[in-house]
Specification:
The complex is a heterodimer of chains A (about 300) and B (about 350).
Chain A (H helix, E strand, L loop, with lengths): L7 E3 L1 H11 L8 E4 L1 H9 L7 E3 L1 E6 L2 H17 L3 E2 L22 E3 L7 E6 L10 E7 L2 E7 L11 E2 L5 E2 L2 H11 L19 H15 L2 H5 L1 H13 L3 H7 L2 H7 L4 H12 L10 H23 L1
Parallel strand pairs in A: 2-11, 4-7
Antiparallel strand pairs in A: 1-3, 2-4, 5-6, 6-7, 8-9, 10-11
Helix pairs in contact in A: 1-2, 4-5, 5-10, 7-8, 7-11, 8-11
Chain B lengths: L2 E4 L2 E4 L4 H10 L5 E3 L2 E7 L4 H17 L4 E7 L5 H14 L2 H5 L1 E7 L2 E3 L6 H15 L7 H15 L7 H8 L3 H10 L4 E3 L5 E3 L4 H14 L3 E5 L7 H11 L4 E3 L1 H8 L11 E6 L8 H6 L3 E4 L8 E6 L18 H10 L3 H9 L2 H7 L1
Helix pairs in contact in B: 1-2, 6-8, 7-8, 11-13, 13-14
Classes of the chains: A alpha+beta (about 300), B alpha/beta (about 350).
Chain lengths: ~300, ~350
């Protein structure tokens, strides 16, 4: 993988349409796009002049029980449509029957004639209690791969939004919650790819996406998030929802602490070269967005859980 | 208000963020700044306790401003030089010598100063005279007078008829001599009844114009700007205010004016004007953060301010009950808000829309 690869500016609608058309019709209902492309499509999918910086289009296969057959069908169809395996140093080629699971790559495919972006197949965890990274072997005629699942990927699966192209996108507020829960602290792990010259911490990039979603959403809709968040956590995690809700704001709180200014600078960088590329906020503006997020969503959510 | 020196005139000082924080933390701010000298003026300080408080406040300030000096000016104080000398020695035992070296105390009586640092020169003297005058009662707008004027105008606009001096005293929260002196000043515009009740004969244009000139100071008008780059709508702020359920905050400005006169020619709502009833010296601004954490006080008049708050100091608010537990500011507050928002023609139309004013102008 090229660690210096820059993110590409793409039209969310055009890319989503291209991905959807390449996927077998009977599999489209099992595909939920998550990540920046989904957010971009949700907020400015109808404006062709607005683009997002992205390189990976994350396709969540859902429900879990359909993940392997859907993953197989999608992978084989894409290869059949001249999509190509995305080669990286670590993962030079698909595996085969003799390759152990931990040496198998994920399905990462470039569209025909382009290496600017790629789709990656993921799935939801088998059990909500299972938060560790899991890899399910995916056997296809094009080789053997794994379908990764981890953490809180079951949250974006909740009530996804249908698109004009038959596939779904995750709800922005669900992606925001998944990121918040994924990062109760600012972790040390960095991204595998630089964003506009900087190698950001993963937590900073993901929490930055939460703030980007908050900036793109309008105030009244954010005030509805606590109820929606409570619903999804109750649905997916049962009695554990309260303890999860009370942890949801921890990472963001840490980010706002004055001593973590360097991390907040990374957050702004991720917004500036990501979803907010058309109107990059200043540091102070982004802090104000975070403070509003606490007031409108995180604190009321914590209140519901107490 | 913070004052500083510029080309021989007093001007408003914009504090640095660090000093703003200090003001918020300690509640202390000097009265003026002349180059690197911060000055506090205290009138009729006779007690040692007040002197100590001022010295300590100034010392805190200088700790935060390591290249500045501080001067405490005691105007018409009965503290003797010997007593001051004694206090100064006590301060030397307590305060850091480096801070104390940058501090000085001077006495002032009838424009005669004792103890001014010599190097400050004549220009400083001229500036200090202006500062002392500005900080003196003579230099400050007569708040009680304008409060009485507003009450008289309120009763006149709403056609409430004449009132007694006692009613004015209780409404404003001032003494009989203050009411009597204010009514004498308004004599030409007053109608005095045989039972000693009074009311306005007509709209007191001259005094109103004087009030407009000082209304920001009289009402302690405070503006809040958006720092998110995505200002919340007036409706959003209003909805959040409703949820707070505060009876001491009333809606004025364009929205309030529309409440009293729905036919008023006012398109759009450029900002939210609120009247906050606050009799105390310290105002609790925490509710602003509850309306929107992205709001921040601004001193710049040219910066858009989605929220503007005016203090109502009188005892009786004259707020009118509204729906959703949200009171309306009285029409005089709304009128002042329209002027403050430079909606002059709408302000005129607003006054004329009241029946009493119509009678006068017809």
């Amino acid at each position: 993988m090229n660690g210096r690869a820059d993110l590409r500016l793409v039209s969310p609608r055009a890319v989503l349409e291209q991905v959807a058309h390449a996927i077998p019709k009977d599999c489209r209902a099992n595909i939920i796009i998550i990540g920046s492309l989904a957010v971009g499509y949700h907020f400015f999918g109808n404006d062709p002049s607005l683009r997002v910086h992205t390189k990976d289009i994350d396709c969540l296969l859902s429900p879990r029980i359909r993940a392997l057959p859907t993953g197989k069908a999608v992978t084989e169809r894409l290869f059949g449509e001249q999509w190509t395996y995305r080669v990286s140093e670590e993962w030079p080629s698909p595996g085969h029957a003799g390759t152990p699971n931990d040496k198998l790559p994920a399905v990462r495919l470039n569209p025909p004639g382009s290496t600017e972006w790629f789709v990656e197949l993921l799935t939801v965890p088998e059990s909500s209690a299972d938060r560790k990274q899991q890899f399910s072997r995916l056997e296809t005629t094009a080789g053997h791969f794994v379908l990764p699942s981890f953490g809180f990927l079951s949250i974006p699966e909740y009530h996804p939004i249908p698109t004009d192209f038959g596939i779904f996108i995750a709800r922005p507020e669900m992606m925001a919650l998944a990121h918040l829960l994924e990062h109760p602290v600012i972790g040390a792990q960095t991204m595998s790819t630089e964003i506009a010259g900087l190698n950001l911490k993963r937590s900073n990039k993901d929490l930055g996406r939460v703030l980007a979603i908050a900036r793109l959403s309008d105030g009244p809709s954010i005030e509805n998030w606590p109820i929606l968040w409570m619903e999804v956590l109750q649905n997916k995690f049962g009695d554990e929802w309260r303890s999860l809700a009370l942890k949801a704001g921890a990472g963001m709180r840490q980010l706002l602490a004055p001593e973590n200014e360097p991390d907040f600078l990374e957050v702004r960088h991720s917004c500036e070269y990501g979803l907010l590329v058309s109107q990059p906020p200043t540091l102070d503006q982004l802090r104000a967005t975070a403070e509003r997020l606490f007031q409108d969503a995180i604190e009321p959510f914590e209140k519901l859980a107490r | 208000m913070q004052l500083s020196f510029k080309s021989g005139n007093i001007k408003v000082v914009i504090l640095s963020a660090a000093n703003e924080k200090m003001v918020a933390d300690t509640g202390y701010r000097p009265d003026g700044q002349w180059h690197d000298v911060w000055v506090e003026v205290k009138f009729e300080t006779h007690g040692i306790r007040n002197l100590r408080a001022s010295l300590l406040g100034l010392a805190y300030w200088l700790t935060n401003n390591p290249t500045s000096r501080g001067l405490l000016v005691l105007v018409d104080s009965r503290i003797t030089e010997d007593r001051l000398h004694h206090e100064w020695k006590l301060a030397q035992q307590t305060l850091h010598p480096e801070i104390l070296e940058r501090m000085a105390v001077a006495f002032a009586k009838k424009k005669h100063y004792v103890g001014l640092p010599r190097d400050l020169g004549d220009d400083f003297r001229v500036w200090l005279d202006q500062l002392v005058l500005k900080e003196s009662r003579e230099g400050k707008p007569r708040e009680s007078f304008y409060a009485i004027l507003e009450v008289l105008l309120h009763q006149w606009l709403l056609g409430k008829g004449p009132m007694t001096s006692e009613w004015i005293m209780k409404t404003v929260g001032c003494s009989y001599p203050t009411v009597a002196a204010s009514l004498r000043r308004l004599e030409s515009t007053l109608l005095r009844h045989s039972d000693r009740r009074v009311e306005l004969r007509y709209f007191p244009k001259d005094e109103w114009a004087r009030l407009l000139a000082v209304s920001d100071e009289v009402r302690s008008t405070t503006r809040f700007a958006d720092r998110s780059g995505q200002p919340r709508s007036v409706d959003s702020l209003l909805n959040r205010l409703k949820r707070l359920g505060r009876s001491d905050i009333a809606v004025g400005g364009v929205i309030g004016a529309r409440h009293y006169q729905p036919a008023l020619d006012l398109v759009g709502t450029p900002r939210l004007d609120l009247s906050l009833h606050s009799r105390g010296k310290n105002v609790d601004w925490n509710f602003v953060k509850q309306l929107d954490p992205a709001l921040q006080e601004t001193k710049r008049r040219d910066e858009p301010a989605p929220l503007v708050i005016h203090l109502v100091r009188r005892v009786r608010t004259l707020f009118e009950p509204g729906e959703d537990r949200l009171p309306w500011a009285d029409p005089v507050e709304c009128l002042l808000d329209l002027h403050e928002g430079r909606l002059e023609s709408q302000a005129l139309e607003f006054v004329r829309s009241f029946r009493t004013a119509k009678r006068q102008t017809s």
